[in-house]
Amino acid sequence: MSVALIKLGGSVITDKSRYRSFNRESSDRLAREIASSGKQVILVHGAGSFGHVLASEYQLQKGYLDDSQRMGVAKVQRDVRDLNREVMLSLDRAGMPSTSIPPGACALMESGKLRRLETDLFHRYLELGITPVTFGDVVLDSQRRFGICSGDQLMHLLAREFRPELVVFCADVDGIFTADPNLDKGAKLIQEVDRSTLESIPRTSRVTDVTGSIYGKLESMLDIAELGKGTMVINGLVPGRLASALRGEKVKGSLVVGGRG
Ligand code: IP8
Predict the structure, then answer these.
(1) pLDDT tens track for 195-240
(2) pTM for this structure?
(3) Helix, strand, coil % (nearest 5) of the chain?
(4) Is 182 exposed, middle or buried (0-12, 13-18, 19+ CB in 10 A)?
(5) How crowded is residue 123: how many other Cβ atoms within 10 Å of its Cβ?
(6) Looking at the domain that runs over 4-256, which CATH code has it been given?
(7) Hey, whose CA ends up nearest to atom 7 of ligand 1?
(8) How far is the CA of 44 from the centre of ligand 1 (A)?
């Protein structure tokens, strides 16, 4: 059974600069594009302003430092579940049967790395024709007591487990650029990204992001691409682009290729 693994970046479904602001228009449209593809899909979404703002305030990415973080763990978990509920409602409106699988309840990290996820649940829901949806979350950590599990870590583990025919990252820009395109008008889209590209692009981000900017995330995208399947970064804010990518058409974006450099 072949699946497409899709990540909706937090910047596509939320306004990352405003705490807990959901972009319903984008989320509804992307849900419709996924539903109309007729493909079997595993969906992952980022946390955007529902996760990164408070996670950074409470320094959750560092793991346990003191008891004052406990309220932060609880609040961030609550917030990302609220965002997930919004995404699930978009999928409902698109007529796509789907189920939410929160990593905080079925995953374990070790020193900040995702080690275990109940992938059996994903298999069983897929067999039922129900789309599993998971998301960046606060997860227990065997060394640090808790940590932030990004959607990208989930993408990597799920790609290893399901060997999807297609992996699509939906960002708020056209793909991977030579510099941040929102800051540098001379930034150029890199159509084919490989390991050697990593050295040449900036690691900075405009907004608070405890798991790194899109550039920081390139590392896990390269690891996924190494699994030998088509991996691409496209602009999820442009209507129709995800739908075209799922139809196998050539779309504007960056193709990520592993094993080189
Ligand atoms: O937005 C981060 O997930 P991401 C999760 O995929 C939290 O990096 C809770 C900040």
Answers:
(1) 888 777 766 555 556 666 666 688 889 999 998 678 999 999 999 9
(2) 0.95
(3) 40, 20, 40
(4) exposed
(5) 14
(6) 3.40.1160.10
(7) 51
(8) 11
